Amino acid sequence: MNSEVIKTVPKKATKPKKRKSSGSLDVQKSRMGWLFIAPFLIGFFLVYLPMIFDSIKFSFSEIEMLDGGYVLNNVGFNNYQTALESSEFKSVLIGSITDLIFSVPAIVIFALFMAVLLNQKMRGRAIFRAIFFIPVIVSTGIIESIDAKNTLASIQQNGNLAEEGSISGGSAGGQILSALDVKSLFSGLQIGSGLVDYVVGLLNDVYGIVNKSGVQMLIFLSGLQSISPAIYESCHIDGASSWETFWKITFPMISPMILVNAVYTVIDSFTSETNSVMQHISQTYEQIGPGEEIATAMSWMYFLVIVLLLAVVAGILGAYVFYQRKDV
């Protein structure tokens, strides 16, 4: 028998296919970020952006009502000029800005102080955090309208401003301060009357400060908990005191949160329903005649003032913000 020799040809080794890289980790995070904000962007471009364009057109126009609708007649800057000539609008706007300049530092400092305290290891820490965040929940929705009719809230928020010289007033707080004779105590220390009125106003407005500092306190807490405990341990080993640790470690590393909370407080104050400028614009809008166009012009002027103040706040605080470098 003839034996057949079968020769086997070795197959060529196939190279494994390279998987296409979807990018670095930073690129993937960036894509996920765009995915999360996609609903907002869609709603902004489809709903809010056309409304913004219409609002700008209304501020430069006069509305003429017709049987089948209305016609916009261009009047230039007449609506803005009319708004600037309104002494009531100017006084309300200046008063709101002045109130903001004094109230924002108080709210941010109080929120930082409470966040540092609530970040300490103690019993019932979660309960205390919930208690200080309750005003944020109470001041939203229908509960806000109920709270506005509350006697205590009305006393705290609408007290005698002239008598106590407070930021937001408060006759009940003024009676307490009068009983304690706080003004006499400060005057005995040879402190200026302006600073005395400011401190008294802050004490009178404790209700408002606590009510507006809940979100800021949570932001500060998240920032404090992101600081590595190893840094505090090394400072303790080197013999640094708690005071030195706060100013050398905690305060610089929490400074980005100070900037965020300052910007948030400014926006929250200007967009609040209890804001005097917002109330004045709403009253002007409801007036018969060219009230809608003038109110729209006031709104855009108010918006420009807010943007300018935010730029000033970000410019001042941004120069002192410390950003921790991360090794790549």
Description:
The protein has helices at 25-59, 78-85, 87-118, 125-138, 142-148, 151-157, 161-164, 171-180, 182-188, 193-204, 206-212, 214-225, 229-237, 242-270, 276-285, 291-318; strands at 61-66, 69-74. With 328 residues, it is mainly α. It has one domain: MetI-like fold. It has a two-stranded antiparallel sheet with strand order 1-2.
Task: Record the SSE blueprint.
Elements: H1 25-59, E1 61-66, E2 69-74, H2 78-85, H3 87-118, H4 125-138, H5 142-148, H6 151-157, H7 161-164, H8 171-180, H9 182-188, H10 193-204, H11 206-212, H12 214-225, H13 229-237, H14 242-270, H15 276-285, H16 291-318
Helix pairs in contact: 1-16, 2-16, 3-12, 3-14, 3-15, 4-12, 9-10, 12-14, 14-16, 15-16
CATH architecture: Orthogonal Bundle
Mean pLDDT: 76
Computed Rg: 30 Å
CATH hierarchy class name? Mainly Alpha
CATH fold category name: MetI-like fold
In the sheet with the most strands, the strands line up as 1-2
- Total DSSP helices: 16
| CATH 4th-level superfamily | MetI-like
User: pLDDT under 50 segments (min length 5)?
Assistant: 159-175
| Strand segment count | 2
Condensed summary:
This protein has 328 residues and is mostly helical. The protein has a single domain, classed as MetI-like fold (Orthogonal Bundle), CATH 1.10.3720.10. It is built from 16 helices and 2 strands.
Top keywords for this entry?
328 residues, mainly alpha, MetI-like fold, two-stranded antiparallel ribbon, 2 strands, 70% helix, 4% strand
